[in-house]
Amino acid sequence: MPAFPMPPPSHRPDRSVSRIAVSLVVAGAALAGCASAPAYDAREAVVAAERGFARDAADRGIRAAFLAHFAPEGIAFEPGPIRLVEVWGARAAPADPRRLALAWEPAIAGVSSAGDLGYTSGPYTLSEPAGRGVLAHGVYFSVWRRDAGGVWRVALDAGIVTPEPVQNAALLPDPLPPRGDARPAMPDELADADRRLEGAASAYAVALAEDARWHVHGRAPVLGRDAVVAARAADARELRYTPGGAAVAASGDLGMSYGRYEAIGRDAPPPAGHYAHLWRREPAGWRIVVAVHLE
Fold this sequence. Notes:
The chain is of the alpha+beta class. It has helices at residues 39-60, 62-69, 84-89, 187-195, 201-206, 225-232, and strands at 70-77, 81-83, 101-104, 108-111, 117-128, 133-146, 152-161, 208-216, 222-223, 238-248, 254-264, 271-282, 285-294. The protein is 20% helix and 37% strand. Strands 1, 2, 3, 4, 5, 6 and 7 form a seven-stranded mixed sheet that branches. The chain has a six-stranded mixed sheet with strand order 9-8-13-12-11-10. α1 runs antiparallel to α2 (62-69). The chain is globular and about 50 Å long. 47% of the residues are buried. The model is unreliable at 1-40 (pLDDT under 50).
């Protein structure tokens, strides 16, 4: 892997491409309408914002576009969580800002009923057009918050490298939208929900929504609760989840959390990695819609 003055990516290149930080996220466009705008319109605003961000990355380069479109407190992983604007902003800009090209598009998207928290996910490709060609491909997952000025900026970004390119169709359909009848909630509720995941894979299964999806570094995404449970059944480890942060929509029906997970027990290996969870409130309580494990 060539050395160049960019942060190593959380979710784009794998360890062989070694942390060339590429954190796909979204933002940049104002949400049309007020917080009570129809969910379809809000979804389209998030998708349009991300596509605009992708165009900006192509025009100005990855670093400049990311610094412009992340929220000041926006989280990326390299491999642990960082505040991207703070960390990348302190690093020197590359001599050629467009030597690397990052191309992506949203396949799925959703927003809270309050229109203040949203997410997208889709395939990406990282390449060196004038050099070695494609360096990595995979699937990104981004959470966005609408700021006080009505602009969507990334709150969290976590993604995976996949063995083969992933097509949009493999990620469809959208997860179910929030019901819009949830009560107000606090981020501490999601931190507590993360802690309750401790134990074997069966403990995790209880928290999954029926339309949950699991993104794990080095594998293709797994869609559907039953498929996720079956995929995780091969992991005999007991895991502990330590929250690092969380955010909840004003409507209390959509939220995100992130932190570290580690194997526990006398013969357990060292800390295993980091996670990001997208939560949707259902009648039975908070359920995981998207889980990203970065090992």
